[in-house]
Design brief:
This protein is mainly beta and 735 residues long. The chain contains 5 helices and 35 strands. It starts with 11 loop residues before the first helix and ends with a strand.
Length: 735
């Protein structure tokens, strides 16, 4: 094992792992040293071989032989490779342009073989159904259905509380019917029917029949005894026995003696026998005589409770002058005998109370007055300028109804009418419990006004001369769904203050002009439908039925069709309303296969996919003209752009030291072009350097004709994206 080391704080397992890594590194270092020695030996050998072949001469060996080296002669013999297979015939080049008339006929070109007829492509799939039209607007709400059946009767309510007992009826003079006779008793001492108690209703007859006498046999009826439940005790009997026979209040033995029932000589409370102050004093009366009201009069600080009885005051005076001060006795009532009137003290004066003699001459009897319980007034009631007559209230000035609660107008006729000087201008009436507001004056409007910051504004005008057209002074905020069978007209709007807003005042629909409507988003027009029915998106002046973007100013204009990865997106061109007439022509993209279809007469004609373009049927061109472009040199360089055309010319003004064929099609697509080089008119003999990618016959580029204004025509073709161009001379020294 190699060298070891230890570090404090590291576990044994960690130490072993580190030691193993160190041993492995030492072994690798030893191996590297050996390999370095071997590399040094190989380098020395290679150097000696290099020195040996410094004067190497190559030679061609026979076909199939091996490579051989003669160190004595320094010759390396390399075998010839086998001959490769003949390359395939290149495609026939495009016909060159017609040369100038020449007296010498050019050689006849070989006729190319006719290619096989291509197989007819499969009919493309039928285009997808066009999108469904927009759902029509919701119809008006139907009429209310008939009344449903009556619900089940609810449970019977609980029994109400028992009413108060009615008053006792008056005594009747007719005796009630005689009750049935009771049954005879049994046992000793029974009162038999033979004792003749049939007339028991008569107390005298009953006593006589029983043989009872008042005083000796029975006690006479006493209302005092009947009203008490106290028992007659032995103590009471002892006291009564102590009263002398025929005793009266003057008998000192029964009045003034100690223990007597009464003392007629009482001059103060202390002389009342067996009577203390606690026997008379109560919390309400007080314990002193000074708390009692003097007989001469005074101020009563509490209430007088008559317990249902009357409290009478004899406030009667002989003359008015005898009345006391009305200020002192404010609120007092008094009667003056000489005038026969009652008076009431108020505000320092005695106010006489009205009596029958004070009534007017038209109502001289009390029967002409309105009863306190209510009644019918036969004449008008006048108070100031207000007259309450039969069925009307009139006033010469303003009339105010001011109540603490609510004011209810209840007209059983169903109409509440408003008039001005007798002319009716407004009705509020009921029709099948629907509330109606009606202006009966022909062609006169109904206005709703209010106070806005101190100014009167007309918020809403209903024009009755125009079938009730509603004009709002400012915006209209609508919550929920609004349905209208008529018109909703809004004028004077703009993109920054739309007529119908959606959340913001500058987002919604607005009037863009006569018979036009626009959609504004954040104060900027995004869509317009003009008076021709053309729709503009991103433009306010669509040039066709649908315009996207503004001509000459929009940097881009796009239509995006979004589907799933297996969906289709189509542009349909129809000339009917059903079947294939809905899509006689279409452009469709199939996301499932990532290809584009083009169709006419409801059938696929072309398909473009990631391989190329597929044509269903014969491809016919309406024109066989080729695009021509004249190319000039810049700094001795000429570039031919394949996107610019396929027939080019260049007139020499100086020698061309470099040239390029730019933007060829991708590999796999063939492209052919012709180039005409025209020598300068001064026969300068300028040369032309072709691109290095051109492969000429015999690997030799042609020399440009030096004759003044001579024309040389060349043809170039490629099919590998311009990596190799095949060049041919179509003719030289022309014209």
């Amino acid at each position: 094992m190699g060298s070891s080391f230890y570090v404090n704080g590291i576990t044994t397992n960690q130490t072993n792992a580190i030691q193993s890594s160190v041993d492995s590194a030492a072994t690798s270092a030893a191996t590297a040293t050996t390999k370095a020695a071997e590399a040094s030996t190989s380098a020395a050998t290679a150097l000696s071989h290099k020195n040996a072949i410094t004067g190497l001469t190559t030679a061609t060996g026979s076909v199939g032989s091996s490579v051989a080296y003669n160190s004595g002669t320094g010759v390396l013999t390399v075998p010839i490779g086998a001959t490769g297979a003949t390359g395939s015939q290149g495609s026939t080049g495009n016909t060159g342009s017609t040369g100038a008339d020449s007296t010498v006929a050019g050689p006849q070109g070989a006729t190319g073989n006719t290619g096989p007829q291509g197989a007819t492509g499969n009919t493309g799939p039928t285009g997808s159904q066009g999108p469904a039209g927009n759902t029509g607007s919701t119809g008006n709400t139907g009429s209310t259905g008939s009344q449903g059946p009556t619900g089940n009767t609810g449970p019977t309510g609980s029994q109400g509380a028992t009413g108060n007992t009615g008053p006792t009826g008056a005594n009747s003079t007719v005796a009630g019917p005689q009750g049935p006779a009771g049954s005879n008793g049994s046992g000793s001492g029974d009162i038999l029917a033979a004792n003749n108690l049939s007339d028991i209703a008569s107390a005298s007859t009953g006593r006589t029949n029983l043989g009872l006498a008042i005083g000796s046999d029975v006690q006479a009826y006493s209302s005092v005894l009947a009203g008490t439940t106290a028992s007659y005790t032995s103590a009471l009997n002892t006291k009564l026995n102590g009263v002398e026979a025929s005793a009266d209040a003057t008998d000192t033995a029964n009045v003034t003696a100690a223990g007597a029932v009464m003392d007629s000589e009482v001059t103060n409370l202390a002389q009342v026998k067996a009577f203390s102050s606690s026997d008379y004093a109560t919390a309400a009366q007080g314990t002193l005589a000074t708390n009692a009201l003097p007989k001469a009069g005074g101020t009563l600080t509490g209430d007088i409770d008559g317990n249902g009885s009357k409290v009478l005051f004899a406030n009667m005076y002989s003359a008015v002058s005898d009345l006391p001060s009305a200020s002192t006795y404010h609120g007092m009532f008094a009667h003056v005998h000489s005038t026969g009137k009652g008076y009431f003290a108020h505000a320092g004066a005695w106010v006489p109370l009205a009596n029958e003699s004070n009534l007017t001459s038209t109502t001289t009897i009390a029967n002409a007055a309105l009863p306190k319980a209510g009644g019918t007034i036969t004449g008008n009631l006048t108070r100031g300028g207000t007259v309450i007559a039969d069925g009307s209230i009139t006033d010469t000035g303003d009339f105010t109804l001011d109540v603490v609660g609510d004011i209810s107008l209840d007209a059983d006729g169903g109409d509440i009418r408003f008039k001005d000087a007798g002319t009716e201008f407004l009705q509020i009436f009921n029709n099948s419990t629907d509330a109606h507001i009606y202006n009966p004056v022909q062609d006169k409007d109904i206005l709703f006004q209010g106070n806005d910051g101190g100014s009167t504004v007309t918020a809403l005008t209903l024009d009755m001369s125009d079938a009730g057209a509603a004009t709002f002074n400012n915006g209209v905020v609508i919550g929920g769904t609004t349905t209208s069978s008529g018109q909703v007209k809004v004028t004077g709007s703009s993109a920054s203050a739309v007529a119908f807003s959606v959340g913001d005042t500058n987002t919604g629909f607005y009037n863009t002009g006569s018979n036009s409507i626009g959609l504004s988003i954040n104060g900027s027009n995004k869509l317009i439908v003009n008076n021709s029915g053309s729709v503009g998106i991103g433009t306010t002046a669509p040039q066709r039925q649908l315009g996207i973007g503004t001509h000459g100013s929009s940097s881009s204009a796009e239509i995006a069709f979004g589907t799933t990865t297996s969906g289709t997106a189509s542009l349909l061109f129809g000339d009917g309303t059903s079947g294939a007439d809905l899509y006689r022509g279409y452009i469709q993209y199939q996301h499932n296969g990532d290809y584009m279809l083009f169709a006419t007469n409801a059938a696929q004609r072309m398909r473009v996919d990631n391989v190329g373009v597929g044509i269903t049927g014969e491809l016919k061109a309406t024109s066989y003209n080729e695009t021509y472009a004249a190319v000039t040199a810049s700094g001795g360089a000429v570039a031919f752009d394949c996107h610019a055309g396929n027939t080019f010319s260049h007139t020499m003004t100086a020698a061309v030291s470099s040239s390029a064929f730019n933007n060829p099609p991708a590999s796999g697509t063939a492209y052919t072009m012709s180039v005409e080089i025209i020598q300068d008119s001064g026969a300068s003999g300028y040369g032309f350097a072709w691109p290095s990618s051109v492969d000429w016959p015999a690997a030799t580029a042609p020399t440009i004709t030096a004759t003044a204004s001579a024309k040389d025509v060349f043809v170039f073709t490629t099919r590998d994206g311009g990596t190799t161009w095949y060049g041919f001379t179509a003719g030289q020294a022309l014209g």
